[in-house]
Design brief:
The complex is a heterodimer of chains A (430) and B (598). Chain A has helices at 5-32, 36-41, 53-64, 81-87, 95-119, 139-147, 150-157, 162-177, 181-195, 202-215, 222-248, 251-264, 275-281, 287-308, 313-327, 333-342, 356-380, 385-418, and one strand at residues 427-429. With 430 residues, chain A is mainly alpha-helical. Chain B has three domains: 33-253 and 266-361, no CATH class; 378-525, Immunoglobulin-like (Sandwich); 536-597, no CATH class. Helix content of chain B is 24%, strand content 32%. The longest helix of chain B has 24 residues, at 2-25. Classes of the chains: A mainly alpha (430), B alpha+beta (598). Chain B: This is Gpi16 subunit, GPI transamidase component. Chain B: One of its GO terms (cellular component) is GPI-anchor transamidase complex. Chain B: Keywords: Membrane, Signal, Transmembrane, Transmembrane helix. Chain B: It comes from Penicillium salamii.
């Protein structure tokens, strides 16, 4: 892209304004409503057992008193978070340093997003160029879309540790599009270490890295490239696990309390996902079977997307993030906010989408009614668990429709690229 | 069989001779009843039954006073010391003063069991503990078999063995509670069967399930422990107690007409000094202690002589004692002998060895009251907060003393589905002036022993060593979260809530040396509940949403995008298109034939 120095300067100014405004908005919300962070921390839509800040504080309390936080049912987050937060001042007595730390992480995430957008990989990759490649938002707008998304703000104020997984994923992608495949693997290793499921992003990410690498001189063989990077990812995860082992001292205890917890879903605290109520109501003898089915279902999308969109690995990552936001065991709105952050990179697909109104209405409807129905169930007692369950169904349906629509639009875009004369024609799938 | 009896005969003979010599030396069974009229027209009756068996005869399975059923269970489970409690109701310390036996013979609401088990390691101790609870469950008709790993704790500082144990034993203390257990007649019957006179004679003949479990507070206990004299002779002591606080008015109600009815207007005792007192407005006066009552009226029975095994003659020990001022008149059955003690409030009775014994107290206005011991500490525990998602625990400790601080150990076990956040533990101290101030928990809590719960495996165990300054009230609070369970884990009455075991407080009294125990009331915890009628619907609906997403996405992924023209063109060449065209052709042929026939 050719940008004149003056336009680059205005871009930079806009960037500063957006980032500054996002920071000030968060600061104002924290200072004007001091109860807001704790309120959000307690919301089931924001905090799940694997990212709750309150549980982190409990783990930290035990950790600083030399009690193993994993020898209990409360703390299920990665061990490396403990020494990190032990450095920060106590969030109860002085909440501001922790809050500002989270704001900065959010800004860093937005910066990574800005880099991804500026690389232009979403519209023009090695093997694919979007037909409507000029219909797009610039990086600052994409970052603003992320920073001013109420879901992102709520996640940030609630100090959910999913923010770090988000950073890991976004930095992995931004390093990948920047051609720094080693850092990309390290960042993905960090994200996988924190929440396990980002491992599934490995194949599209390594394809993305390979796309960038193949544009340069002497592209290596793809098989060898993938194996090398898989080794790198495993090494980074092993390194982080080794460090954790040094911290906790008991390898199996923390493995079963963190990854075992992710895999076996023993805590059925309500969240916006589909797993909790299903496994509350599931008959005991079928529990393991359906756990397997649900995980297999989640993993099945990786193959499907990767095969069909081999020419657009970044789109595979985006749509997988959408899948995770719905189908992972402990989803929260932070996962949805990550999907919504990646979606504006595909501004050029929006004209091709067919059910945006329906999907957006469903998402808005459920995000407004969700808290109300939860209140009716848990506090007012005038509703029962089915109220909130029904809303999580609508929420999941809304996001999956949006996702399916984006997938359709991307396929149609590919088709239009192959048949330039048919642009705008009515299509069917056979 | 023959060989066995041949071999064992001399042994039995030996033991019999040994045993009879012991019996002659000192009859090892004592029973005792203490009657304390309490304020608010209540009556505390404390029954105590104690017997000793020498360690040798216990080891040789030779039981006399110690019930064989219980003794064999103890031996099988390698239990060296056992404490079992059945309690219902609440001891009203505000009006009744300090607890009987300093609280050492009572348990929390429901059933409480703790035992010292001899085992080489924790796992074996737990296996033996399970054996013990299963066996006791059968013996006492209680749900003790539900004391599983989630309800078992290993207190560190809250309990100490009462007995004298040998150094070689590797003792493990295990503690379990069933706060939801309803103690009733089916627990009393096996309890009575353990007594040598089995409720047929002696003070145990007063027990009537209707009255006992109608009490405002009652506690039954079984304690078994080895007791050694300084010269090394050890005995296994079993002590059974029953304490109950009966409401005299309520107990005097006849059994044939048990329904409480309002007191007629002219019999109401009103405070006439109130300005609003009139014919139709009454401020009831506090119940006075001058009520007339008798054993027959209160217990529905008389004492049926004395238990022949209990030693009475010549020892100066009386089995029934009453604590009322000496000036109050007491009528007793003829043949019994009254002995007034020097303290001015106690009189004991030597009962005739046969024939029934009754005592009755006429209505009499007495100015002198039996002084009540002030409790050393008031403790109260409540759940605060609303909603089924989270809540808080509030524990209040009041020190009534104006001079000295009180040191104690606070012990609580929480079920795993109540997840405490111990980092939110806060302390507030309130003085007599009513001004409260926050202070860091570390100033009040000297030591903490905390073992967090693991889902479906074990409960939370919290032991705090605290000190409450003189004339002040300390309030501890912490937040907790309520877990939502799988629908099969809820009891049938899920909306009633779950019982949380009472907290145990052990007051370390340096003066009296013996610890004082307090127990809070048990709590009811409301959990969020799913809809129990919906498993199929939920499975179907969730699966539908997943199938919708999966189906839509993969449907889009596996199909080709084509324009409308291509689609119709393609239609002719695909398998489906070809089949369709064949079908059309066949249909046409049929129609053609049909027209021909016509």
């Amino acid at each position: 892209m050719s940008t004149t120095p003056s336009s680059r300067n205005t871009m930079k100014d806009r960037g500063i304004v957006v980032f500054g405004a996002a920071f000030v908005l968060r600061l104002l919300l924290t200072c004007l409503f001091p109860a807001l962070p704790d309120l959000l921390t307690g919301r089931v839509e924001v905090s799940t057992p694997v990212n709750s800040f309150k549980r982190l504080q409990e783990g930290l309390f035990l950790y600083t008193r030399n009690v193993s936080p994993y020898d209990g049912g409360v703390y299920h987050q990665a061990p490396l978070l403990l020494p990190l937060f032990a450095l920060l001042p106590d969030a109860k007595s002085s909440p501001l340093p922790t809050a500002i730390f989270y704001f900065l992480v959010d800004l860093l995430n937005a910066y990574a997003l800005l880099k991804i957008s500026q690389s232009g990989q979403s519209v023009k990759s090695r093997l694919h160029t979007a037909v409507r490649q000029h219909v797009r938002w610039d990086g600052v707008s994409v970052a603003a879309w992320f920073l001013f998304n109420p879901f992102t703000i709520a996640t940030c104020l609630a100090r959910s540790t999913s923010v770090f997984t988000t950073s890991g994923i976004l930095f992995a992608v931004s390093n990948a599009v920047g051609g720094n495949s080693v850092n990309a693997m390290l960042a993905l290793g960090f994200a996988s270490y924190l929440s396990l499921y980002p491992t599934l992003l490995f194949i599209p990410l390594v394809l993305l890295c390979y796309d960038i690498r193949a544009q340069g001189p002497n592209p290596p063989k793809i098989g060898l490239y993938v194996v090398q990077h898989a080794g790198l990812l495993l090494a980074s995860i092993a390194g982080l696990l080794g460090l954790s082992c040094l911290i906790t001292g008991n390898f199996w205890e923390f493995i079963s309390a963190t990854y075992g917890f992710h895999l076996l879903v023993p805590d059925l605290t309500p969240n916006v996902g589909l797993w909790w109520y299903f496994f509350i109501e599931m008959f005991d003898s079928f529990r393991e079977f359906f756990l397997g089915v649900f995980w297999l279902h989640l993993a099945s999308y990786v193959g499907g997307f990767t095969v069909r969109f081999q020419r657009q690995p970044l789109f595979v990552i985006t749509s997988l993030l959408g899948v995770f936001a719905v189908f992972k065991p402990y989803p929260s709105i932070s996962d949805a906010s990550l999907f919504f952050a990646m979606l504006p990179l595909y501004r050029h697909l929006f004209p091709l989408m067919r059910y945006t109104f329906f999907a957006v209405s469903a998402i808005l409807y459920s995000s407004l009614l969700g808290p109300a129905f939860y209140h009716l169930w848990v506090y007012a007692g005038s509703g029962n668990a089915n109220f909130f369950y029904a809303i999580t169904l609508v929420w999941s349906l809304g996001i999956s429709i949006l996702l399916a629509d984006a997938v359709f639009a991307a396929l149609r875009d590919e088709w239009e690229q192959q048949n330039p004369d048919q642009k705008g024609a009515e299509v069917r799938q056979v | 069989m023959t060989t066995f009896s041949l071999y064992s005969l001399p042994l039995v003979a030996l033991i019999l001779s040994l045993w009879s010599s012991i019996v002659i030396a000192s009859p090892d069974y004592h029973e005792n009843l203490q009657l304390h009229p309490l304020p608010q027209s209540s009556l505390l009756a404390s029954f105590n039954f104690r017997s000793n068996t020498s360690q040798e005869s216990f080891d040789q399975q030779h039981f006399r006073y110690l019930p064989r059923a219980l003794g064999q269970i103890l031996q099988h489970a390698s239990t060296k010391e056992l404490h079992l409690r059945f309690t219902t109701g609440r001891w009203d310390a505000e009006s009744w003063g300090s607890r009987p036996w300093n609280g050492s013979k009572e348990g929390g609401t429901g059933v409480e069991l703790w035992a010292w088990i001899d085992a080489p390691n924790d796992d074996e101790a737990f296996a033996k503990w399970i054996t013990l609870t299963q066996s006791l469950s059968g013996l006492f008709c209680a749900s003790l078999n539900f004391v599983d790993s989630t309800r078992t704790t290993r207190p560190v500082v809250s309990f100490e063995p009462f007995g004298d144990h040998s150094e070689v034993d590797q003792l493990h203390l295990l503690h379990g509670t069933l706060p939801g257990e309803v103690v009733c007649t089916e627990n009393l019957t096996p309890f009575l069967k353990l007594l040598p006179c089995k409720g047929k004679a002696g003070i145990s003949s007063l027990f009537d399930g209707h009255k006992l479990f109608d009490a405002a507070w009652q506690s039954m206990s079984v304690d078994i422990q080895p007791v050694c004299s300084p010269d090394g002779d050890c005995v296994v002591q079993i002590e059974q107690t029953v304490d109950m606080v009966l409401d005299i008015d309520r107990s005097k109600r006849s059994r044939s007409n048990p329904i409480p009815r309002p007191v007629p207007n002219d019999q109401l005792v009103c405070d006439t000094s109130k300005p609003y007192h009139s014919d139709d407005t009454c401020y009831p006066l506090e119940k006075t202690n001058d009520k007339a009552w008798s054993l027959t009226e209160v217990f529905g029975r008389t004492i049926n002589g004395i238990c022949p095994l209990a030693e009475v003659e010549g020892s100066g020990e009386q089995s029934v004692c009453l604590h009322v001022p000496h000036e109050r008149g007491v009528f007793i059955t003829e043949g019994a002998e009254e002995i007034k003690k020097d303290d001015g409030f106690t009189r004991c009775f030597n009962l005739a060895s046969s024939g029934s014994f009754d005592l009755s107290i006429p209505k009499q206005l007495v100015n002198l009251e039996v002084p009540l011991d002030e409790p050393v500490l008031h403790a109260e525990r409540t759940i605060v907060g609303n909603g089924q998602e989270r809540g808080g625990m509030r524990i209040m400790f009041g020190n009534p003393s104006n001079i000295s601080a009180v040191d104690f150990i606070y012990f609580e076990t929480l079920p795993w589905f109540l997840r405490p956040y111990i980092h939110t533990l806060h302390a507030t101290i309130t003085g007599r002036d009513g001004i409260s101030r926050e202070l860091p928990a570390s100033e009040i809590v000297k030591e903490t022993y905390y073992r967090p719960a693991i889902d479906r495996e074990r409960g939370t165990q919290l032991e705090l060593s605290l000190s409450v300054p003189a004339a002040s009230t300390v309030t501890l609070t912490y937040d907790f979260e309520k877990a939502i369970l799988r629908y099969t884990e809820y009891p049938p009455d899920a909306n009633r809530g779950f019982n949380v075991a009472p907290a145990v407080i052990r007051i370390v009294d340096n003066v009296h040396h013996a610890p004082i125990y307090l127990r809070s009331t048990s709590l009811l915890l409301q959990l969020p509940v799913p809809d129990f009628s919906m498993p199929y619907n939920v499975i179907i609906l969730t699966s539908t949403v997943i199938a919708l997403a999966f189906g839509t996405i993969f449907n889009i992924l596996v199909r080709r995008v084509v324009s409308l023209d291509q689609a119709s063109a393609l239609g002719a060449t695909t398998l489906k298109g070809r089949i369709l065209s064949k079908v059309v052709a066949i249909r046409d042929r049929f129609r053609g034939k049909a027209t021909k026939v016509e």
